[in-house]
Amino acid sequence: MSGYLAVLIFIFVGVGIVLFTFFMSRLLRPANPYHDKRINYECAELPQGNSWIRFNNRFYIFALIFVIFDVEAIFLFPWAVAFGQLGLYALVEMVIFIVILFYGIFYAWKKGVLKWL
Amino acid sequence: MALIEKVPVYAEKIPGGSIVTTTLERVLSYGRATSLWYLLFGTACCAIELMCTGASRYDFDRLGMIFRASPRQSDLIIVAGTITKKMAPRLRRLYDQMAEPRYVIAMGGCTIKGGPFYYDSYAVEKGVDHIIPVDVHIPGCPPRPESLLEGCIHLQEKIKKQKLGDWHKKVRSYDQG
User: Fold this and answer.
1) B2 close to A (CB below 8 A)
2) What is the pLDDT along chain A (117 residues), one digit of tens a residue?
3) Distance CA B161, CA B48 (A)
4) Which among A41, A42, A45, A46 is the top mutation candidate for probing chain B, defined by the most B β-carbons within 10 Å of its own β-carbon?
5) Which of B38, B59, B145, B149 has minimal CB crowding within 10 Å?
6) Residue B71 and residue B91: Cα distance in Å, rounded?
7) What is the pLDDT of residues B40-58, one digit of tens each?
8) Which residue of B has its CA nearest to A43?
9) Directed axis angle between helix B145-160 and helix B18-33, to 10°?
């Protein structure tokens, strides 16, 4: 239980620093909002319409497929760093892991979600 | 107006309260002068010199200057290059979208008075002073990185001398013409 106390303190300090920074910047910064300052930044062009629009649902699937690569990278980097001590067993295990992930991509490919209509 | 700019109003009422004000001013202006983050805004050949200054040989970073790709994070705009009449409202919009207090460096002849386009051009804005309030002008076509660095140091000295509320006064007088 005492091990989790450190986590709790970490969370409180982390949140505390953010809140403190926001408070300090509120104290120091000039607050002068006006229309031209508040409009969306569109590389200095006048924005067309609202930025709170519905995005195409297909972006979601692409994001999901991207997560596959993301997770793969998260596991691959520590594995690569510690590869010297792990040996052949880890190599085989990682190959199996990547094959499973690639199976997911091929599944999505075959389903036709990579095609943008 | 920031909360901190109301401090002088109350501090001056107490005897010796001006010590608080002057100390605060010095701390604030020191922070502002030594962390000028500039907006990437290169419209012509001056931008090449600006890039060179930002790279390792001339090392802008030692002045505390880092480029930002968004006006929301920057408080300095180095206008590097010719500003056409079509670009002018965009420049003004970018300036408006930057964080306050914001500063302007006009780099090169084009931004000062139109440069080589002064006589025979219908499209070039003859000086960015018409659009935004400029703090430092750097002559040259284009200016060498050394002169850009010197201009930035001049701007830093200028900011360090600023009192609380000076910036707003200056901009207000510019807006009124």
Assistant:
1) yes
2) 678 899 999 999 999 999 999 998 888 778 888 888 888 888 888 888 887 888 888 888 888 888 888 888 999 999 999 988 888 999 999 999 999 988 988 998 898 888 876
3) 31
4) A41
5) B59
6) 11
7) 899 999 999 999 999 999 9
8) B94
9) 160
Please give the structure tokens belonging to residue B96. Answer: 């408006």
pLDDT of residue B145: 94
Contact B70 A41 (CB under 8 A): yes
Cβ contact, residue pair B28, A44, below 8 Å: no
Pairing of strands B103-107, B136-138: parallel
In chain B, which residues have their Cβ closer than 8 Å to the Cβ of A39?
A: 93, 97
Question: Between chains, do B93 and A36 touch, taking CB under 8 Å as contact?
Answer: yes
Tens digit of each residue's pLDDT (9 = 90 or more) over A71-94 = 889 999 999 999 888 889 999 999
**In this complex, do B2 and A28 lie within 8 Å of one another by their Cβ atoms?**
yes
pTM beyond 0.80, yes or no: no
Phi and psi for B107 in degrees, rounded to 5?
Answer: -105, 125
Q: Which of B70, B96, B168 sits opposite A37 (nearest CB)?
A: B96
